[in-house]
Amino acid sequence: MENRKDQIIDAALKRFSHFGFHKTTMNEIADDLRITKANLYYYYPDKSTLILDVLIKIGNDVYAGEKEIVESYSGDIMKTMMDVLEYRAAYTRKYYVLHICENLDWIKGLDLNEVMQDFYKREVALIKMLFQRSVDAGELIMDDIEGCAQTLVEVQKGLGIIHTISDVITGIPNESNVDKIVESQKRALKLIFEARIASNK
């Protein structure tokens, strides 16, 4: 059963990333998989449930890659954080149509709060782990590691919203905004952390 669900999620992700959530029908996903609509509805009784699983898959894939980057930290926290930003940006470019759909009214009815909160906590924990390793290595000077991790995650998310709000309002994707997001996030990292790195003292 899990294998069939994975196939459905993969097919839906391809459609959603090209046409967006709203313009994709369950019939089209069933046709892509060469299964009946009844068969599709057996696994996913409504599109909202399928969208949720697609978002969870993307979130899990992004986290797995970011975790690998953080775990490979070797004494250069700025490089590690820049690598995380670039990795995340690659996913944002790939699924930009979905990225700008996150704040649309029609998707707000989904039970996303718990999922998004889990993503947030997981991201904070990952950044906290990176900070702790850097502090332990004598590279980073930081007292409130938990608070700093939360703040960084929130700042980065806020910068992402600033540069995509026009696309969210118009519904017209402009992938060049991803470059603006990454550049702003990199500037924020330098502003926040360069003075905290022991070798810069």
Low-confidence stretches: none
N-end to C-end Cα span: 57 Å
Assign the CATH topology of the largest domain. Answer: Tetracycline Repressor, domain 2
Spatial extent as radius of gyration: 19 Å
Description:
The protein is an all-alpha fold and 201 residues long. It has two domains: 1-45, Homeodomain-like (Arc Repressor Mutant, subunit A); 55-200, Tetracycline Repressor, domain 2. It is 74% helix and 0% strand. Helix 7 crosses helix 8. The longest helix is centred in the C-terminal third of the chain and has 26 residues, at 145-170. The chain is elongated, with a radius of gyration of 19 Å. The termini are far apart.
Annotate the secondary structure layout:
Elements lengths: L1 H18 L6 H8 L3 H7 L3 H25 L5 H18 L1 H4 L13 H24 L8 H26 L5 H18 L8
Helix pairs in contact: 1-2, 1-4, 2-3, 4-5, 4-7, 5-9, 7-8, 8-9
Task: From the structure above, extract its key features.
single chain; 201 residues; mainly alpha; Arc Repressor Mutant, subunit A; Tetracycline Repressor, domain 2; 2 domains; 0% strand
